[in-house]
Design brief:
heterotetramer, A: about 290 residues, alpha+beta, Alpha-Beta Plaits, 2 domains, four-stranded antiparallel β-sheet, 4 strands, about 10% strand, B: about 230 residues, alpha/beta, Rossmann fold, six-stranded mixed β-sheet, 10 strands, about 25% strand, globular, binds adenosine-5'-triphosphate, binds magnesium ion
Chain lengths: ~290, ~230, ~290, ~230
């Protein structure tokens, strides 16, 4: 333990550079975890915003409508139910199309039904909820933007899988960089290891300090990476939130800490692995 | 204690270093190995602590043929053989003290004894003064003495010294040899490869002379040069 | 030159690991260039799809309409002009809203005007083009989805700036990793350099082979990175194109080669820089 | 040729290596520096090729005070001083041939001459046979001879040899010294630090004896030890 610390200190510049490389790699890695987390969040938000319109029969009383609402609220997946009275809908509709033609010229009476607009928790539930809403008494028709949804679903799935594969690949790349950087550091001490062996040190005895040194380097790299990530993420998130308030940036402390912990754990693990692999490689050679 | 049978050694690059070596060294003997540069003295010693394996033949140390020793056993063999390396082989990132203590640490020696034994060994070679220096901060002779201290520190039953006085002045050389002689008398088998004529001639011990990878003379109470 | 090659060969494992780390870093770098390129493309496509509707007076003859079209085509930023006859528009409209209410019941005559749909080259030009289209004779009204466009524009800009900053940061990170990896390799040869100086070699004489070796390592790393990028990108692009044909994946050879060339140039440059910085550092020390 | 005035040297870690050294060595002199391990012989030589700077005093080589030499000038100074390093300092990734040739390459010597001169130097120290080996594949004496070849190869006007025979047998040592003597007679100023008593006594040259960083004796046609 003390050995590893002393050796770390004495190798000076070399250790610093190693820690630097690892810091950078882990920062990139953490940065992408954060990016993937946020992309997932935005996608989730988008799908949540796709709503299902439930058209109800024209001639229901207010109390019937209220009863109806509570039925819809209880459907699985429904997050929010908004009632759009037919008059409001008609006003919106006319406004929207006012330029194209003057509706009042041709339409005497409001032809639109009362509508409930449902926000659904997740894309997967949209179809199911729509089907169930259709079975509720008094529902005229249920509509949701079918093909748009289909496409979005494929895209969301593609991005999720892509994000996952991508984080996997990046983990692997980070692993390679970190392990190999530590390996370089250890390789440079080939002579030292060979001398240790000549003096009668067993392989495990030699390995010990190198592994601890690897962990030390990994932990340090991880700690620096977290510092960089935390400060820059907080700054960037604040900026985005003020500039683009409609973007759902993740600021949940818990989710963020999970990522930070993952980064530091990875650093430690990779440092250990790097120390282990590299010494073993040198030990096997002779 | 040590026996070499029909040894020959060719290095991978084709250089032949030893041919047809047969040799027996008894327990607690004191043997000088002499011979011109490149004769194979260092190679012969390397065989004994399993830094090299012979191309043919067997190397028997303490009744075990170490040519066929398993990798895991090598460290334990080496703990029983103190070696003064011709090129010192000090750990560059450790101080003199740490270098000597390291040879004890690897054997799992209790912490309390490490300090005492290390200081003792450094004192023997008059290196207490430089205990905190790093190898790069030592003079040639100081490195050599640090290396000797490390080889002695855990009282190995066999001690190999490859040119232990190459960088030492005659007076210090003679002191070191007296020290080695004392150690030899305390039940240690001793092999010393050297070019130091006056020491070999002065000590009057068994002398093995090599030339071009062959033993050309093996003489009790011998001298450095056969023809003189 | 020969020196550098021999030294590269002789340092074996160490060189291999260095090349490996550089390969990985450059691969990640190139991967993100590709990602940014594609994101840019998708965003471009989305903005290109935002069209401007030009409603024209109801009673124009066919030849007037043709003249009109050519005028629109000549507007700056206009990529494509599609004519939507009023009958077609009415059919579409009725189909779209058939479920909500039966239009035929209430509307006797097609109230819609003839419409030209313009595709605009870039988001920035939409407003300008709309304004100019309005001045064309015979135009009744020009419409485009204002607020949607605003948001998209902000998003597009944010992503562009983000992508740029991000590529910049990544370039910097790659630079640090590559330079420092080569530095580690050179640091391990501290003794060698000090010996060279003792024998009377000038700083520039010592630097030469190390810089060339750095370039060699960088170029090799770059070459491997390009191989990895090319094959995996081609495979991934083919897969996406078949699974999500609506995603505009970049397959333009020219754009891709530019990225590959950038990656290899970066590798070479960083290798050189790494060699230079590290030797200079060692040379200055004494 | 060489003049040291009021030199003292303290290493950064506080060790004092030289005190109050005043010394003049004329052109084409042959000087032995002797003294026990740690006396400061290597440190004194390091001052001459500017590997260390004195703490006080001036080092004048060929009329230039090299203690104040600019960094860029140092390589040119070193090309005029051949050094046989006590610890060889061979480039580990270059073969013996390449190591010797390197000393010529740095001077910008034309390619055609490099080969000829290198081979000549290797022949002088009987190392042609090992020209293609790497330092790690050499015996101690072979490394030493490679180092001597490198120091000689570009006929420097000053040659410093630090323990050039520490790992050589008496016969080879004597040959090397004869070689150095011959080089000295061809207009080369020669400083040899050594512990080899028989060589110093045999050569009958100027002997400077040091102890604990001080010059304690400076004798023409001297011997190794003053009291003997
Ligand atoms: N690792 C190696 N690879 C190839 N050849 C080697 C290696 N080590 C030594 N040799 C060669 O083997 C021969 C014997 O070397 P060795 O080191 O045993 O000589 P030595 O008797 O110790 O000489 P010295 O007195 O100079 O130290 C030499 O010719 C040397 O060049
Ligand atoms: N780089 C250094 N840093 C600190 N102290 C040093 C350094 N180099 C040498 N010394 C110390 O300076 C003193 C003189 O060393 P020097 O190498 O000059 O001795 P030397 O006369 O060459 O001895 P030897 O005959 O053993 O080679 C020694 O005590 C040594 O420990
Ligand atoms: Mg030897
Ligand atoms: Mg010395």
């Amino acid at each position: 333990m003390v050995e590893a610390f002393t050796s770390f200190r004495r190798s000076g510049l070399m250790s610093m550079i190693t820690v630097g490389i690892i810091t950078i790699s882990l920062t990139i890695f953490g940065f992408f975890l954060l990016l993937v987390l946020n992309t997932g969040n935005i996608i989730g938000e988008i799908s949540a915003k796709m709503d299902v319109s439930v058209y109800i029969q024209k001639n229901l009383s207010d109390s019937e409508i209220a009863a109806f609402r509570s039925q819809l609220v209880s459907l699985p997946g429904v997050e929010k139910v908004t009632f759009v009275p037919k008059n409001e809908a008609w006003r919106d509709f006319k406004e929207k199309f006012a330029a194209r033609f003057s509706l009042d010229d041709v339409v005497e009476d409001n032809p639109l039904p009362n509508t409930f607009s449902l926000e659904i928790r997740s894309t997967d539930l949209v179809e199911k909820t729509a089907r169930m809403a259709k079975q509720v008494d008094g529902v005229d028709d249920v509509r949701y933007s079918g093909s748009y949804l289909e496409n979005t679903k494929i895209l969301v799935d593609a991005m999720r899988i892509g994000g996952f594969i991508f984080v996997l690949l990046l983990t692997f790349a980070t692993l390679l960089i970190v392990v190999n950087t530590i390996r370089l550091t250890v390789l440079a001490r080939e002579t030292e290891i060979s001398i240790m062996r000549l003096v009668g040190a067993t392989n495990s005895f030699i390995r010990g300090p190198f592994i601890i040194e690897g962990i030390l380097i990994g932990v340090l790299g991880g700690a620096f990476a977290i510092l960089i990530l935390k400060f820059s993420y907080d700054a960037i998130a604040a900026r985005i939130l003020s500039a683009l308030p409609f973007l759902p940036v993740v600021v949940d402390k818990k989710q963020l800490s999970t990522i930070y912990i993952m980064v530091s754990a990875l650093g430690m693990f990779l440092g250990m692995l790097g120390g282990y692999i590299s010494v073993s490689k040198l030990l096997k050679e002779k | 204690m040590i026996e070499l049978r029909n040894i020959s050694k060719n290095y991978p690059n084709g250089v032949g270093a030893l041919y047809d070596i047969n040799l027996h060294i008894g327990k607690e003997e004191f043997v000088f190995i002499v011979g011109p540069s490149g004769a194979g003295k260092t190679t012969l010693m390397k065989l004994l602590y399993r830094d090299e394996v012979p191309t043919t033949g067997s190397v028997i140390v303490d009744k075990i043929n170490i040519a066929g020793l398993e990798q895991q056993q090598v460290p334990y063999l080496r703990r029983n053989i103190g070696v003064v390396f011709q090129d010192y082989k000090l750990l560059p990132r450790k101080t003199v003290y740490e270098n000597v203590a390291f040879a004890l640490q690897v054997t799992g020696c209790p912490r309390s004894q490490i300090r005492r034994k290390t200081m003792q060994a450094l004192e023997l070679v008059s290196m207490l003064r430089s205990a905190k220096q790093f190898p790069a901060q030592l003079s040639g002779g100081e490195k050599q003495r640090a290396c000797i201290a490390r080889a002695l520190v855990n009282n190995p039953p066999i001690l190999l010294a490859d040119e232990p006085t190459g960088n030492l002045d005659p007076a210090t050389s003679w002191e070191i040899l007296q020290l080695l002689d004392k150690i030899n008398k305390r039940n240690t088998t001793l092999l010393v490869a050297t070019h130091n004529k006056s020491i070999v001639d002065g000590m009057k011990k068994r002398v093995i002379a090599m030339e071009s990878g062959r033993i050309i003379r093996d003489q009790q109470l011998g001298v450095y040069s056969g023809n003189l």
